[in-house]
Amino acid sequence: MNNTMNNFFTELNPFFVTGFADAEANFYIRISPKSLSKTGWTVEPTFSIRLHDKDLDALKLIQAYFGGIGTIVQDKKRNEAIFRVGSINEMGVIVKHFDAYPLITQKYSDFILFKQAFTLIKDKEHLASEGILKIANIKSSMNNKIEVADIAGIVPVKRPVLPVNAYLSINPYWISGFTAGDGCFSVSLLKSKAKLGETSWIRFILTQHNRDYNLMNSLLQYFGCGTLNKDSKATYLVVQKI
User: Fold this and answer.
1) Residue 221's domain is classified under what CATH number?
2) Domain boundaries, position 21
3) Is residue 163 part of a domain?
4) What 3-state class would DSSP assign to 15?
5) Contact between residue 41 and residue 33 where contact means Cβ atoms under 8 Å apart
6) Which residues of the chain have a pLDDT value below 50?
7) Cα 208 to Cα 234: distance, rounded to the nearest angstrom
8) What is the pTM (predicted TM-score) of this model?
9) Could you say which of 122, 139, 156 is where a domain stops?
10) Which of 101-104's residues contact partners 24+ apart within 8 Å by CB, and which partners?
11) Residues 194 and 130 both lie in one domain
12) pLDDT value, residue 148
């Protein structure tokens, strides 16, 4: 990291971290067959953030914020860097942060389900078949589902609902973190009949799944400018007027 960046980001604001996680983080529970296990299954909870490897320094800052837990690995074939936390002892640090500084996208629901599964694992309930079924029920209600058809009797739990007041007062550090993950600043040069033959066009864009339309509308109100555009999957906050 260059000296300017190093001096500026001496310590990340916790709301920035949550905003960045709302944009880029993944809460994941893997349930895999394991013949040597008493239940026949193994359970692995994982928190991860995957970025282009040009943003490796950002992952190092996030890892430092969490006290150095987890690991950062690089996939040079895909030009990716991944910050991953999988240790049960270390996962408590992650859960504690998001309890104190809650997510405000629909990712909040995945975190609550993830926390429920983590609690079961921490209490060693995953060592019995009944506990594996409870975790499978939770997993089947999360966004990043996995195939658990071989576990009999799965009944998805009710998916938690984001509190209605979750984004009524959005923290500006959260917006900076979210923008660092999902924002786009672009400059385009277009042909023009003007004297120079070209004109410039600048845009700021934030993109989110349509399930977070209300959040995007709140961001529109926060900035007091721009427009909301929507297609079949995503909502776009676009600011392009000078």
Assistant:
1) 3.10.28.10
2) 3-139
3) no
4) helix
5) yes
6) 1-8
7) 6
8) 0.89
9) 139
10) 101/14, 101/15, 101/17, 101/18, 102/18, 102/166, 103/18, 103/21, 103/22, 104/18, 104/22, 104/162, 104/166, 104/167, 104/170, 104/174, 104/215
11) no
12) 56
